[in-house]
Amino acid sequence: MQRSRATVAVIGAGPSGIAAAQQCIREGIDDVLLVERGKPGGLLYQANRLENFPGLRDMSGREAVVALGEIIQDYDIGLLKGDVSEISKKKNSFEAVTENGIISAKYMVLATGTKPRSLGITGERYHPEWRDYTGEKVAVVGGGDAAYDYALRLKELGAHPVILRRGEPKALSVLVDEASDKGIEEICHELTGWELSDNVYSLRYGDNSLSCDIVITAIGREPALPDMQFSYGEVKFPSGSTDIENFYVIGSLVLRGYRHASLAWGMGLAAAMDISVKDRNNQKM
Question: Where in the sequence is the domain holding 84, given as residue range(s)?
Fold first, then answer.
């Protein structure tokens, strides 16, 4: 099995992970490895529009991740493709197991983000694709920022989106107002059942039903953690340091209700600054 070694391994190449890897290199730690199972940028790719991420304002998510990918290239950050299934602690290092081999590092930064919650609907999707949806009716189930952001994107891509939420909107008022201004249909009722026949969904709510071609589930997210062979205990802010020396947990994985790309980026910077101080002190000993 292939083995890779680094001073710092960052698991996850979303905003927090990229920030941590970049800052480690800026701090003089050249041996940095960034591990990502998909495309760099993480969930940011799905954003319809960024409005308050410094330097990336007024970009779509897919434009923003291109800019983040350029950081990886410009700083010559080692990028390893792979899905980390397990992390264990050794005497003076950590090991991450992927389908492509084992990664060993003195410092490990966990930035694996979140995964969507499911409604259990056959064929449900968790975000719209960037494609033409002309003529398609799409139900977006949820009432938070993601649901409204997805509905707005779908509208721009030609779909007829319908937001099905069980209560009052929990999204930013600017998103709710924009959805209203653009005539996006909203239904306030809890989903009580569903059927799929001839590729058409029928979503039941109360005594009524909503027919649609696609169901997008946006009912929240939960931490996406690999199997951990140890407990890292309390996560401290802003750096994401934990009860385990040299192990950090950052980004949307721990930000919970404060999930935001700018906050995730800041945690990545703080983690790298902590690591650089530790590494310099260790070298003096």
Answer: 3-115+221-284
Assess whether 94 and 127 both reside in one domain. no
CA-CA distance, 62 to 71, in Å (whole number)?
Answer: 15
**Residue-wise burial string across 220-252, b where 16 or more C-beta atoms lie within 10 A, e elsewhere:** ebeeeebeeeeebeebeeebbbbeeebbbbbbb
254 and 205, same structural domain?
Answer: no
Report yes or no on whether pTM surpasses 0.70.
yes
How many separate domains does the chain show? Answer: 2
Q: SS3 of 192, please? A: coil
Residue 207 to residue 213: CA distance in whole angstroms: 20
Element (H, E) at 18: helix 15-26
Q: What is the mean pLDDT of each run of 10 residues along the chain (285 residues)?
A: 92 97 96 94 89 85 93 95 96 94 97 96 96 98 96 97 97 96 97 97 97 97 95 97 98 89 95 95 74
Q: DSSP string of 114-174?
A: EEE-----TT-BSS--SS--TT-EEEEE--SHHHHHHHHHHHHTT-EEEEEESSS--S-HH
- Whether 182 and 230 map to the same domain: the answer is no
Q: Helix, strand or coil for residue 50? A: coil
122 contacts 264 by C-beta, under 8 angstroms:
no
| 107 and 235 inside one domain | yes
| List of residues 6+ apart from 222 with CB closer than 8 A | 114, 115, 117
Domain identity same for 108 and 124: no
Spatial separation of the C-alpha atoms in residues 201 and 194, rounded to whole Å: 7
Q: Are residues 227 and 196 in the same domain?
A: no
